[in-house]
Amino acid sequence: MAQIKLSNLRHSYQPNPASDADYALKKIDLTWDDGGAYALLGPSGCGKSTLLNIISGLLVPSEGKILFNDQDVTSLPPAKRNIAQVFQFPVIYDTMTVYDNLAFPLRNRGRDEDTVKRRVAAIAEMLEVSDMLKVRAANLSPDNKQKISMGRGLIREDVNVVMFDEPLTVIDPHLKWKLRSKLKELHQRVKATMIYVTHDQTEALTFADQVVVMQDGEVVQIGTPVELFERPAHTFVGHFIGSPGMNVLPCDVQNGAAFFRGEKVALEGPVTAAGDGTAEIGVRPEFVKVSANGAGIAAKVRKVADIGRHKVVEAIAHDMRINAILEGEAPNAGDDVMLDFKQSQTRLYKDGWLASQPEGGAR
Question: What is the CATH number of domain 244-354?
Answer without folding.
Answer: 2.40.50.140
